[in-house]
């Protein structure tokens, strides 16, 4: 039997150290943007690629079900990464870099909110959708890792993991989801 304990300790230590480096003011600002979107019944469009698409889908479940309390305005999350037939049709007939912007075209409104999840912050299909949102004046929350890339530059609010490690970044992106949802459940 192999002993992985030292590797486990290193991974968890890196995760803990990274959590301590998060910008709490930025998280607070993003949470207020989410609260405002809920209060004005805005649509919240969320999307990502790969693991970030899975995280986006998880956000939708947690906020549309878990954070919707009786008597409170409801969150209106929609995940643009969830519909495989739409994504493959757009990819095949138009271009993969258009999978999100095409879905937003002519439905995105200024009062809506965009949440873009990207480990690197440089996925072309995400950047293109954010550029479109900027043209309309829609606010953007960027959830990133590494340097944050173009997504961090385009976003109005940031949930940024300051580390060049995709797995730790994705772990902490899920912590953002669960933490924010739980705080909304107990403070609203």
Automatic annotation (TrEMBL):
Record-linked SUPFAM superfamilies: SIS domain
Database matches in InterPro entries: GmhA/DiaA, SIS_dom, SIS_dom_sf, SIS_GmhA/DiaA_subfam
One Pfam entry name: SIS_2
SIS domain segment(s): 30-188
GO BP annotations, alphabetical order: carbohydrate derivative metabolic process
GO molecular function: carbohydrate derivative binding
Protein name listed in UniProt: SIS domain-containing protein
């Amino acid at each position: 039997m192999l002993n992985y304990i030292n590797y486990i300790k290193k991974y968890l230590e890196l995760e803990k150290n990274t959590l301590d480096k998060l910008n709490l003011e930025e998280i607070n600002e993003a949470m207020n943007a989410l609260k405002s979107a809920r209060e004005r019944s805005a649509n919240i469009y969320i999307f990502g690629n790969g693991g970030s698409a899975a995280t986006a889908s998880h956000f939708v479940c947690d906020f549309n079900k878990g954070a919707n309390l009786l008597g409170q305005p409801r969150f209106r999350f929609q995940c643009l990464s969830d519909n495989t037939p739409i994504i493959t049709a757009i990819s095949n007939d138009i271009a993969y870099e258009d999978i999100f912007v095409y879905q937003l075209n002519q439905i995105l409104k200024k009062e809506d909110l965009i949440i873009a999840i990207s480990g690197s912050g440089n996925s072309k299909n995400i950047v293109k959708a954010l550029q479109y949102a900027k043209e309309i004046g829609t606010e953007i929350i960027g959830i990133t890792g590494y340097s944050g890339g173009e997504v961090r530059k385009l976003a109005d609010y940031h949930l940024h993991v300051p580390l060049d490690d995709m797995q730790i970044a994705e772990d902490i992106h899920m912590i953002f989801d669960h933490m924010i949802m739980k705080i909304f459940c107990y403070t609203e």
